[in-house]
Amino acid sequence: MHTVVQSASKSVTIGHDQPFCIIGERINPTGRKKFQELLRAGDLSTIAIDVEAQVKGGADMLDVNMGVPLTDEPALLAKAIKMIQTITDLPICIDSSVIEALQAGLEAYEGVALVNSMTGEDDRMEIILPLIKKHNAAIIALPNDETGIPATAAERMVITEKIIRTVEKHGISMDKLVIDPLAMTVGADPEAVKITLETIHLIREKWGLNMTLGASNISFGLPNRHALNAAFLPSAMSHGLTCAVMDARTPAINEAVRAADLLLGLDPWGGNWIARYRAQEAAKNEG
Amino acid sequence: MTHDEIIKALFDETMIGNAPAVLELTNAGLAAGMGPDMILFEALIPSLEEVGARFERGDYFVPEMLIAGKAMSGALNILRPLLAETGAETVGTFLMGTVKGDVHDIGKNLVNIMLEGAGFKVIDIGVQVSPEKFIAAIQEHEPDILGMSAFLTTTMPMFKVNIHEITKAGLRDKVIIMVGGAPVTQEYADAVGADGFAADASTAVRIAKDLIQKKRALINA
Question: Rounded to whole angstroms, how far apart are CA atoms B38 and B30?
């Protein structure tokens, strides 16, 4: 299954036979007071800094979220997407829980976007899926519904199946569907990550769909989060995770992902791994 | 064991989240003639307060806070009926729910555990709570504080809707309202007309206690 996401000039393929797709996060003002104030005042300069940091870190795509409370999120997101497209050719993952913002973002975007995200709630799917179809976009779907976040893999499978049926009903092909099997912190439940891994495995076996996660969730509330995230991602990849929304600025985590690419046969003969090493050495020698 | 030894052991075992030991010591304390209020206010609550203080300083982490809270909850299950008999003043009643449109509950559950640990009676009405359901629960349980949780920028506006509906129902001055959740800020809490906000579970407990004390002082004045 190949999910192809494109900017005006660049194409990224997500798939089980492809190197892992790092969707750079942080272009997101949640919990960042100063950034929110700047955005409210119409100052988008922080976005450019964040984009540069994610690109430099090795992101394959960029997740863009403009969820600033008490603002016109659709207008802000459209403006941000237009601006980001002038500074990078990486494809964009349009991230909002506001449907009007997703719509505005899709209209502002040139290419094939990934949309983050919808839940398995009927009323949400019925509004979002026509938008996805109209814009030929791909959609991230979470297997939770109005009753809450399912505690078991079996329950997550039931909602995933329902999502698949609904996507089919809207005439959207399966390559446009990326499931987020839900990552919760192991700090609040010792079984949380096991359940996520089991869900990834089951979805991979049954439907072969692409899957993403908000990967850094797993280490919330714990010390030395980078080490936990770096241990988690290769494990999730070997179960069938094909992309993740994550901060690309952390070398330890990126290296773990790229090492797993090589070890899992997704970087044949270590071409990317070796090129990366050479680039780092060259940068050292210049410095 | 003397009463002092039991208090010290309870404090220490709660701090490390040793639930079986806390249960055993609670029973031992009661058997040795200690009052349930003594066990609660001299051992368990101070221990959880220390856990909270360490968490706020960054010395304690979420799992440590959780298991300490759970150990404390186990003891409270024994103590609660006994405390009710003695008619001791409770710390307060806290009604908790995640707003309509939102199913996130990990943060909310963590706050619940810490509140229970601090001696609050917590009534959790779950996720996706509509304004009508909040109002009915306020009428039924008459809590000192209503806590509302929202994890999404899209569901946060429900705070304002709920507060508006609670005001319309004539209940606004009957209950203290606190809000929280990942995207919520003090500024936002003020804007929607909440009485309190906290960024984490331990701070939530501290602020809940402060707000109740202020309200009781006002009533008694």
Answer: 10
What separation in angstroms does the CA of A136 have from each of A5, A64, A112?
Answer: 10, 18, 6
Architecture of domain B93-220: 3-Layer(aba) Sandwich (3.40)
State how far the Cα of A122 lies from the Cα of A126, in Å rounded to an integer.
6
How many CB contacts within 8 angstroms connect chain A with chain B? 62
Q: What is the pLDDT of residues B132-170, one digit of tens each?
A: 999 999 999 999 999 999 988 778 889 999 999 999 999
Q: Which residue of A97, A187, A222 is in closest CB contact with B152?
A: A97
How much is the ipTM here?
Answer: 0.80
B102-135 CB burial, b ≥16 within 10 A, e <16: bbbbbbbbbbbbbbbbbbbbbbbbebbbbbeebb
Interatomic CA distance for residues A184 and A197, integer angstroms: 11
Closest alpha carbon to A140 in A71, A241, A216, A69 = A241
Distances (CA, A) of A191 to A185, A186, A283: 9, 7, 42
> Residue B211 carries which side chain, given as an amino acid letter?
L
Architecture of the CATH domain B3-86: Orthogonal Bundle (1.10)
Residues A242/A16, Cβ–Cβ less than 8 Å: yes
Compute chain A's Rg from CA coordinates. 18
Domain carrying residue A117:
3-286
Which chain A residue shows the shortest CA-CA distance from B63? A187
Q: Is some CB atom of chain A closer than 8 A to the CB atom of B182?
A: yes
Residue A261 in contact with partner chain B when CB distance is under 8 A: no
Q: Which of A128-132, B34-38, B61-65, B178-182 has the highest mean pLDDT?
A: A128-132
Pairing assessment for the beta strands A21-27 and B93-98 based on DSSP bridges: unpaired
